[in-house]
Amino acid sequence: MITNYKDFIKFCESLETRPRLLLHSCCGPCSSHTQQVVARYFDTTIFYTNDNIYPEEEFYHRLDEQKKVCDCLGLGIEVIPDEYNPSNYYEAVKGLENLGERSQRCYECYKFRMEKTAKKAKELGFDYFTTTISISPYKDANWCNEIGYELEKKYGVKYLYSNFKKEEGYKRSIELSHEYNIYRQEYCGCVFSKREREEHMK
Questions:
Q1: Does the pTM of the predicted model rise above 0.85?
Q2: Closest among 30, 35, 42, 67 to 189, alpha carbons compared
Q3: The dihedral formed by the CA atoms of 48, 49, 51 and 53, expressed in degrees to the nearest 10
Q4: Residue 82 structural domain
Q5: Is residue 9 part of a domain?
Q6: How many CB atoms sit inside 10 A of residue 17's CB?
Q7: CA separation for the pair 129, 120 (Å, rounded)
Q8: What pLDDT, in 10s, does the model give residues 51-78?
Q9: Count of domains observed in the chain
């Protein structure tokens, strides 16, 4: 089990083949630098599954920007979009709606989307799955990895350690967004984070 970014890179560099990786992406900007890292070592496909995003127009706007990022980077990475079913997300965080950012609500949101990714990876025969969530300084990479390794046991698909904010990954994602004129959202995605930001801005 990999527990730090240094060992993650060492592991990647030790690979003798290019395994197939299903990369859950929350948005184009977060996937930009992440794509550049994993594409060195893995045949990567993006799975855009984000029922948490509100409103519906935002979901599709981010999906369009995700495709734009892939086109701009030119790494040959395909995007598989999931259907938009926000009711599934609300069921996953039921009873936690009033908790703030970085709370159990967010943990359950990570788990909800990562589990969908693990299931899809198993269904499509991928060797590994992981997530872009960890690139954000506002997200808990330890949670991502804890959840990921548990899902590996549950579904029998290997989880790839994720902490893409390391080595100034988040800063690089901002630079790439500016370089390619990529839309960067002002809130995490869910209606709760949107409301919290609006309250903070008052």
A1: yes
A2: 30
A3: -30
A4: 20-201
A5: no
A6: 9
A7: 9
A8: 999 999 999 999 999 999 999 999 999 9
A9: 1
